[in-house]
Amino acid sequence: MTSARSHWFGIAAMVLATGLFIVSDSLMKLTAQALEQPFQVLFMRCFFGLVSCACLVLVTGQFRKIGGVLHWRPLLRGSCEAASTFFYMAALANMPIADAIAIGQTAPLLVIIAVAVIFRERIGAIRLALVCAGFLGAVLVAQPTGSGLSPAAIYAFLTAMSVAMRDLLTRGVPSSIPTFVVLLASTFILTLTTGAATLAFHPWIPPSPSQWLTMVASGFIVTIGQMAIFLAYRRTPASVVAPYYYSFTVWAVTAGFVVWREVPNSLAVAGMILIVGSGLALLFVNPRKVQEAVA
Fold this sequence. Notes:
This protein has 295 residues and is mainly α. Helices cover 78% and strands 0% of the residues.
């Protein structure tokens, strides 16, 4: 594959992945609103995502290295993934999907701060200013009142923190452990934790046939989205495809309007622009270090 074709493939895969995640999240939110059982809905999506991921492990032949699921880094990464999913679901249930996604997209900015603190990497004045601009954008989206941030906004910020921890752990996962095996570990932990939460907090409500089909589709779609991101980073430099991660916001605003008729106010729109703009600008301030942070 030529360099130009590889770049276009990676860009298309990243945009497709973010779109698929929003479709999956929208299906999950619709089902959660109907059942009023967020943990049960999460469990259903995770279970069908686990089935889909297991099939991919078998089809790609990565089952030969299935022992990698017991490595402590994939397990800890999966725990962070589980935490981020719980927080995101809590935020999604109580705020517009575009706002939840926008605040969650401060995760790459948190990664940069964490790399500076943990690994003593110099940020520089320009990068620090861009990180601060991104957090200002998150505050504009959250729009705290005199009594502080809403619980939903706090959940969205906790989502970003969990995702940042997950991404930092991803950097240290041994290359000998295949991608889908790492994904299988995360999905397995998600399925266990959401199943336990369902049993602990809510009685099981039998879903309708259409709700079963919706969650089958949601679990399959989120797995394909993960595969698309894997292919994007495998065939294209991270510095090329990473900026298109912020297409999340475009998809989220579109889904919010089409499905729920949610229109962000002017402050939220300004905040989204700041988050996306600062994230994109960071990719060009110091490409080598930023590429390491988002990889």
